[in-house]
Every structure is written in C-alpha cells, then in structure tokens.
UniProtKB/TrEMBL annotation:
Taxonomy, superkingdom: Bacteria
Protein name as it appears in the record: ABC transporter substrate-binding protein
Short name of one Pfam family: MlaC
The species this protein was found in: SAR92 clade bacterium H455
Span of the signal peptide: none
Gene3D superfamilies for this protein: Tgt2/MlaC
C-alpha cells in the first residue's frame, strides 16, 4: 500500500516524458493526436525541470507551487477525482459550499503528494508506451513506463477523461499501479469518514494534514506570503 502511494506521488511530482509510438484504429487517430498535442510539451518540460531544478524547488516551495499551478494543475480534473473519492451519491448530497471545500481540499492534497514526490525524486524518467481510448472517446488510459537506475522499471497507467469535447481537452483523473488505482485505495476511508462523522469532518481532516505538512516545509525553508505557505480557499 505504501509503495502504491509513494509511486503515485512520485508520478504527480515527476509527471511524464512523452513518446508517442503505437498503432491504433483509424477512427481514433485524431483523438490520440489531440492527447499528444496537450501532453507532449509538458512531459518533456517536467522531466527537464525536475532533473535540473529539484534542489531549487526544495529550497523554495513557493516556486515549486507556481510550477504545479502553471503546468500540472490545468491537466488534472480535480472535481472528478473528488467526486470519485466520495462517491456520486455523497457528492450530490453536498451543498455547493461543501463541494467547493472538498475540491479545494483534494487539490491541496494532490499538491502535497507532488511535494512529497519531489523529496523522493531521484532522476526517474517517464516514457509513454501506449494509449487506449474508449469507443466514445470520453475516457482512456495512458500507459507509462517509469525507468530508474535505483529500482526495477515500473508500468503506471494514468486515467484520462475528455472534459471539454468541443475543444478536445483531456485531463487526468486517477492513477493505476498493478491494477490498483489511487481512488480505489483512498475511497473507503473517505466514505467511512463521511458515513460515521460527516463530510465536514472529512474536509477538516484533509485540511489539517495539508496545513501541517506545508507549515513544516515552509518553516524549514523560511518561506511565507503565498501558496503553499498560505493555503488558498478558492
């Protein structure tokens, strides 16, 4: 379980280095081309940034947060991840304010994973080896090979969703390792907390973990003034 979480966090931190090399059905080629256009420039930039600027980001968490917000956050559909974690029924029963608070808490949690992954990053390289899109071109998986000189190569899958069909925009919603997804690992504890103590308690617990983690790294680096050293509520 710890290995799954650690790898998921490392993937969020290091992201991917994109190589598009697969044969697909003719009707899916335009869709896969759109996925390539959106992700290819990002993946190479992230690999370069982490390999060259890891120490700077460790010293300046606000700079790393800026990088996450600019390059990573737009490619993740946090609302869909939050809904999957608590379940559609629970999500539908929330007030508008509770939904927004949950989405923000999950967003900050994913950012925390990215920071934890940065601490563990040791030169891993990511290469996309396959893409699978469903018949309706609404969901798909991006299969990623993680190469490291320290551990055996690992295959990870990133679940992607077409969030704006008119513009052809795709975003990530989950990560799978050896058949187990991040959502499947976390959803039981999320839903148990909601059932026993309510959604507000779940949000409070997530906010507390995020606040304590970022307070620690910001104190160690003597950083203040903006995210992540000041967690935003929007």
């Amino acid at each position: 379980m710890h290995q799954i979480n650690r790898i998921g966090k490392c993937l969020l931190a290091a992201a991917l280095f994109f190589i598009f090399e697969l044969g697909v059905a003719k009707g899916q080629v335009p869709v896969l081309t759109e996925v390539e256009k959106q992700f290819a420039p990002l993946f190479s930039e992230i690999s370069l940034q982490l390999s060259t600027d890891k120490q700077r980001y460790l010293r300046d968490p606000m700079a790393y947060q800026d990088f996450i917000d600019l390059r990573l956050r737009p490619l993740w559909d946090i609302a869909s991840t939050a809904r999957a974690l608590v379940g559609r029924q629970n999500f539908a029963a929330m007030t508008r304010t509770q939904r927004q608070d949950l989405i923000v808490a999950v967003r900050n949690t994913l950012a925390r994973y990215a920071f934890e992954g940065l601490e563990k990053y040791s030169g891993q390289q990511f290469q996309i080896v396959d893409i699978v899109i469903n018949q309706h071109a609404s969901m798909g998986w991006v299969q990623v090979l993680m190469e490291s000189s320290l551990i055996p190569d690992i295959i990870l899958d990133v679940l992607i969703k077409q969030t704006d069909p008119e513009k052809g925009i795709w975003q990530a919603v989950d990560i799978r390792f050896k058949g187990i997804t991040y959502v499947s690992v976390k959803k039981h504890s999320f839903r148990e907390t909601i059932e026993e103590q309510g959604i507000d308690r779940l949000i409070t617990d997530l906010n507390r973990k995020n606040r304590e983690y970022f307070a620690d790294i910001c104190s160690k680096t003597q950083s203040s003034g903006r995210a992540p050293c000041v967690l935003r509520a929007e």
